[in-house]
Amino acid sequence: MQMRCYRCSFSFAISRETLAAALASLTVTGNTHHIEYCPRCRTANKIDRQTIARFAPQPTEAELAAARAALESAEAEPEKPEPYRAAEPVGQADSKKKKHRRRRGSGAAEAAADD
Fold first, then answer.
1. What is this structure's pTM?
2. Residues 26-68 pLDDT 10s
């Protein structure tokens, strides 16, 4: 399938194997679009399910089963929560603030104004 990037108008080809894998993934996940990245500018280009189904060969049951297994294994691994950090007391947070330096010319301007 030939595709054109909407941003840089670069034309590139997507193989039938890639389309078959995308269609199997869309069937399992229930998404409506597949994202393909432009090889020239790396912009994400959406391809809707109907376009993929028109150009892709029909996925076999083995491909669907492999896509389901990959999705289930990704869902089975829970994300680790971030460790708990205690809030700093208000008095300590103020003492850790950086003191800003004066501008380079401000001291000279004040000295000249005093003279």
1. 0.49
2. 988 889 999 999 999 999 999 999 999 898 876 678 878 888 8
Inside any domain, residue 113: no
- SS3 string, the chain, reads CEEECCCCCCEEECCHHHHHHHHHHHHHHCCCEEEEECCCCCCEEEEEHHHHHHHCCCCCHHHHHHHHHHHHHHHHCCCCCCCCCCCCCHHHHHHCCCCCCCCCCHHHHHHHHHC
Within-domain flag for 45 = yes
Provide the domain count of the chain: 1
